[in-house]
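tool_call: predict_structure(chain=1)
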Amino acid sequence: MNKAIFLDRDGIINKIIVRENEYISSPRKFEEFVFIDGINELLLKLKEKNYLAIIITNQPEIFRGLLEMEELERMHKAILEILTIDDIFMCFHDNQHNCECRKPKPGMLLQAAKKWDIDLSESFILGDSAKDIESGKRAGCNTILLETQYNINNEINPHFRIKSILEAFDIISDAESDNSLSALKS
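tool_result:
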């Protein structure tokens, strides 16, 4: 079976946008789409360790009419051309749809695991929200939270916390070498 690093998109792959009244949002135009410093380096290092890199992203702005599909496709084309990403799984639903794919439910992770023959217990999810962490835990993944100004005060309980994107590589390498992944599940 394969192992993977699942990545939230907004806040992990690309910078989030702070709109009026400090509303945190995903980019709505291609011109707002800016990669996070260090993300390409992280992905290249994980490729050397044979990790698949898969984006798992809620994109309700499509349903809400705030993001055009053409703009989203331009962003994802840039991701696939510039970064070493193997696949992108998206949910366009909003909270009221109560679908199985929208994080914090694990549907996208389970779909990816089936498609790519992934051992979720040997895989990681890297996110910046409680929804990312809960989704990963429900799927049986190891969870890493990137601490940010907008999530630092939330009660999120990941397996690991990092302050910069490249620290994720150290966490994954240490967990592998210590064989501590199974201990996390106990």
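agent: Strands lie at 3-7, 17-19, 23-25, 51-58, 87-91, 124-127, 142-146, 160-162. Proceeding to next step.
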